[in-house]
Amino acid sequence: MAREKKHRSRGRRSPLAAAALIGAGLLLTGGAYAGASAAMASTTDAQTSATAELTVEDGEKLFTANCATCHGLDMQGTSEGPSLVGVGELSVEFQLATGRMPLQMQGPQAPQKQPQFTDAQIRAMAAYVQSVAPGPNYPQDWVTAGEENPDNANDEVDIAHGAELFRINCAMCHNVAAAGGALTEGKYAPALTSTSPLHIYAAMVTGPQNMPVFGDMNLSTEDKRDIIAALVYQQEAVQIGGFTLGSLGPVSEGLFIWIFGIGALVALTVWITAKSN
């Protein structure tokens, strides 16, 4: 009997231990809830700031903090960056939205990378530059949407005409399949296989880096619209010929034949010789 009571007394839990377990459970639950609430709040704030409309004054603050070091507070340029007088909002949107600016490092060409600003911040900075140094602005919706000009009753979208204009004016640098190509001194023409209609138009109008400016005397707005429509059609088209091999023409095709075609023949010859021996 004494041993049985002793074992029972050892098996009982202290009331303090139960209270400690309950307290620990409440602390863990409360901590997890607080962490989840903070994460949801920060995500909501980030989404709100990304979609909220910013003013020109906000754009000025962003420009002063991120761009004035190289381009100057008055946008006249410095030894580290060119003047922005006359570039307009379209050029600012193109450079920031494609991640080319802020410049990562000095080199032959600014590479495209992940943008560092939200769409609202980019629009605000573009509006500020446009207010101080006006230049090319955003196109009308029908231009980037590939639609007829509502002010011209005789206008029609012509993808074939746009493809012809691209071959004449752009293919020598960007490749006939818009796959891009190498230029001199480490420069290159980027591929246009995933470029948005707005940025295609911006590149034609503003002439970033090595690209010439195509004014209305060279290509009318309707011509630019047709080129955009042709490129968008090419982006969405299914490659019925199979593998494109980078769409680089005989260079990639010849390399494929030499490496895989002739390589397979050599391997087959070695196998037949070893088999016969």
TrEMBL record:
InterPro entries: bc1_cytC-su, Cyt_c-like_dom, Cyt_c-like_dom_sf, Cytochrome_c_Oxidase_Subunit, TAT_signal. Heme c 1 binds at C67, C70, H71. It is a multi-pass membrane protein. The chain crosses the membrane at residues 255-274. It is found in: Cell membrane. It catalyses: a quinol + 2 Fe(III)-[cytochrome c](out) = a quinone + 2 Fe(II)-[cytochrome c](out) + 2 H(+)(out). Pfam families: Cytochrom_C (PF00034), Cytochrome_CBB3 (PF13442). Residues 54-133, 157-276 form the Cytochrome c domain. Heme c 2 binds at C170, C173, H174. The keyword Repeat applies. It comes from the Bacteria. GO terms for cellular component: plasma membrane. The cytochrome bc1 complex is composed of a cytochrome b (QcrB), the Rieske iron-sulfur protein (QcrA) and a diheme cytochrome c (QcrC) subunit. This is Cytochrome bc1 complex cytochrome c subunit. It comes from Microbacterium esteraromaticum.
